[in-house]
Write a structure and sequence with these properties.
This protein is mainly alpha-helical and 170 residues long. It has one domain. The protein contains 8 helices and no strands. It is globular, with a radius of gyration of 16 Å.
Amino acid sequence: MKKNNLVIKKIEKMAYKNEQQYGGCAQSVIGAFKEILGSKINNDVFKAATGLAGGIGLTGNSCGALTAGVMVLSTFIGREYDDFSDPKRIRFKTYELVRELITCFKGEYGSVNCYDIHRKIMGKAYNLWDKKQYKEFLDAGGHDNKCPSVCGNAAKWTIVILLKEGLLIS
């Protein structure tokens, strides 16, 4: 159990740090899993998360940190292409775990949408395409501690789910 707690803290801290240093909430979370867990999260998964930042393409929709958590969960327990018909109904177990992650987000932030999370943690939603609002976002701590904390939480909740389900060797 102590080892699990260390891994949880390490991945949470790495996702937080990635967002501070590089931005891109989805890749910050996935990058933490790649760094800590290695090859299970390959470069294609990391690259596929590029457009998910800022609520999918900076549009304020589904939180990129959440969608990254969904991608990680699906990487560990998702339907394989070679087994597309999914006779074992693996996708439904994946949906169950995703629902659990969404429940964490809604419990903490009241929503899974980027703009709503901005309002909760910064008091205002920021249009990250607008240069003036992007500067305001930065001045409000957007990449200093606000979005990094969301990324840290997303990574923490995701790894806790994976550990609870026995999907990681602890």
